[in-house]
Amino acid sequence: MDKERIRTAILQALQDELDRQTGAALESKAEATSEESKAEHKYDMRAQEAAYLAEGQARQAAEIAAAKEAYRTLALPDRAGGSADLGSVVTLENAGRRQHYFLGPTRGGLDVTVDGAEITVITPVSPLGRQLLGRRPGDSVQLPGRGGAVTHRVAAVV
To answer: Which of 65, 87, 56 lies closest to 15, judged by CA?
Structure first.
């Protein structure tokens, strides 16, 4: 798998998320300062609630921008056959089904599709991320399943 293409897909997904969050923050700010949001009585909190919402959305936009920078500057070492670390793509296999994970610095849970393969971003602080760190092809990890823990084999580390 081409990790540079995966990084590009992650950066695009983060940019899309940043655009949505920035737009929402601007809308909330406009509502907070709108003449229509002016308090009609002492218990009317519309403007204040919109201001709090805009502040939270702006904070989230800043976090997304920081995540973009973290991915932009992330080293993508060649780990083919080596152990999994930050910047690695790990492929797990169970019963002929393969799942691809990218060990990233932040924004775990983000899904991207590259060359028809769905790749899930996980972080080293997540339970799965902790299990994958240092693993090599042929090693096993335990993932929760409906009937208890399910063993998955590390098929590849890139």
So the answer is: 65
